[in-house]
Amino acid sequence: MSNTFDEHIDRRGTSSIKWDITAQDELPMFIADMDFVSAPAVKKRIADRLEHPVFGYTKAPQQLVDSFINWFREEYDYDLKREWVVPITGIVPALSVVSNIGGGSSITVTPNYHMLLDAPGKAGNQMIRVPLHNENEYYTFDFEALKNALLPDTKLIYLCNPQNPVGRIYSLSELKQFEQFARENNLTVISDEIHCELLYDSKHIPFLTVEDYSLENSISFYAPGKTYNIPGVSMAFAVIPDEDLRNEFNRLSYAMGHPGLFNIEAGIAAYSESASWRGDLIEYLRGNRDYLESELGKRFKDARFTHTEATYLQWVNFGEGIDAGFIRKNAKVVLTDGKDFGAEGYVRINFGCPRDYITEALDRIEKAIANK
Ligand SMILES: Cc1ncc(COP(=O)(O)O)c(C=O)c1O
């Protein structure tokens, strides 16, 4: 494996949210992008496109959709039909747009990706939040609680799998129960699978492959942003097998526009030319995951934390009063607060960075807690 993942890259002054809204003496480990060089094939393809001097309006080429379909076949041994795949500009705007489908409320679990939680509200629709069942920081669905929280007008259920921030990869049996719950309650499933390539412990199962109902009553989202570290070149895919649902999505998403010129090139390079880079990335991230988990156990006797099965995000409860505000003020490490995900008392640490950043962050946090 190459050791480029250890390299320190100065990202300040590059319009980076992570590095440009934090002070010089702060170490940012909040928003979910990585501090590594993005997948090299992406840079090459964008550079090649720059050789042509006209940057006009775009129409996503078949090559983009085919690169995604081929990747999907390789990963899951499953053939998506071309017409099911809709290239879009990003998952976040789409999470908001889809909340208008069915004209009712939506339901999901917490803790959960904050923009998934907030997206329906931004479109003027209600999102019902139901806590996951937490047993020693292992999070599972509580279908009884979900059932009790449904409203007469609930039409949609949002799934985040693998789950940000608790790092779960839901098993086939959990997804079958989820499908059954959706079927029994006539819910359409919005499945955000952006983290599906960042896996350490088991395989990801696309929701649409679970049962007939999940194929015909779901909208799934995929994007290269997380895995290939290109979230700044927004592009994603909605996969919508049902024709009526797809037509409704296309009607509602009119104002979202199409992926831009360089985003198209980035998508093709990510899905068709970056498999070996991804393999190296996963091995490095697995090392970070193991290192962080073991250091948390050794250094913070009162901390409770998940075993991260997927994503480069670690969910931690350091103890009473040690939230992201305390850590930022006293340790100069910037984390995301659990409140954003609908769970108080926790922080989320992004470990998609050179390993010595993790050591530095833990040193600072340990000192701050010792001086509390
Ligand atoms: C679960 C999840 N969905 C979507 C996104 C962002 O998607 P996009 O950049 O395509 O809008 C993120 C980013 O953190 C995420 O964690």
Sum up the structure in keywords.
alpha/beta, Aspartate Aminotransferase, domain 1, seven-stranded mixed sheet, 372 residues, globular, 2 domains
Radius of gyration: 20 Å
- CATH secondary-structure class of the largest domain: Alpha Beta
Number of alpha- plus pi-helical segments:
13
User: What is the H-and-E element order?
Assistant: HEHHEHEHEEEHEHEHEEHHHEEHEEEH
What does this 3D model show about the protein?
- It is a single chain.
- By secondary structure, the chain is of the alpha/beta class.
- It has two domains: 4-39 and 275-370, Aspartate Aminotransferase, domain 1 (Alpha-Beta Complex), CATH 3.90.1150; 48-273, 3-Layer(aba) Sandwich (Aspartate Aminotransferase, domain 2), CATH 3.40.640.
- The chain is built from 13 helices and 15 strands.
- The protein has helices at residues 17-20, 40-50, 62-76, 91-97, 114-122, 143-149, 172-184, 212-216, 243-252, 261-273, 275-299, 324-331, 355-370, and strands at residues 27-28, 85-88, 105-110, 127-131, 133-135, 138-140, 154-160, 188-192, 218-222, 236-239, 304-305, 313-317, 333-334, 336-337, 347-350.
- A seven-stranded mixed sheet has the order 2-10-9-8-7-3-4, sandwiched between helices. The protein has a four-stranded antiparallel sheet with strand order 11-12-15-14, with helices on one face. It has a two-stranded parallel sheet with strand order 1-13.
- α5 links the parallel β3 (105-110) and β4.
- α3 (62-76) runs parallel beside α10 (261-273), α4 packs across α5 (114-122) and α11 (275-299) packs parallel to α13.
- The longest helix is centred in the last third of the chain and has 25 residues, at 275-299.
- It is globular.
- The N and C termini lie far apart (41 Å).
- Bound molecules: pyridoxal-5'-phosphate.
